[in-house]
Known about the structure:
Blueprint: E1 2-7, E2 13-19, H1 33-44, E3 49-53, E4 69-71, E5 76-78, E6 87-89, E7 94-96
Antiparallel strand pairs: 1-2, 1-3, 4-5, 6-7
Amino acid sequence: MAHFAELDADNVVTRVIVVGNQDCLDDLGQESEAVGIAFCQSLLGLDTRWVQTSYNGSIRKNYAGMGYTYDEQRDAFISPQPDPSWTFDEESCTWIPPVPPDAQEGLGE
């Protein structure tokens, strides 16, 4: 199964749908994102915008979720910043808390 994220005008994910593998194959039987996008548009409107996403992060760094932003420059889905104190990791395109979770174990004791 393939997964596609619908984007609004600001590149924010408004929904993610599952598309059958057979609906993403080109004339040579190869998986094609463009074919999958055309299939999504045929179902949900030619004026919709779609980008393929992946559960395992094999494309676009992170699996798209509602409210995530698609960054075209990085070719990555980025979650909303959880808190202003969190910093952005360019390599993984994820947010890093101010105190790493493993360092928090001894706090508050």
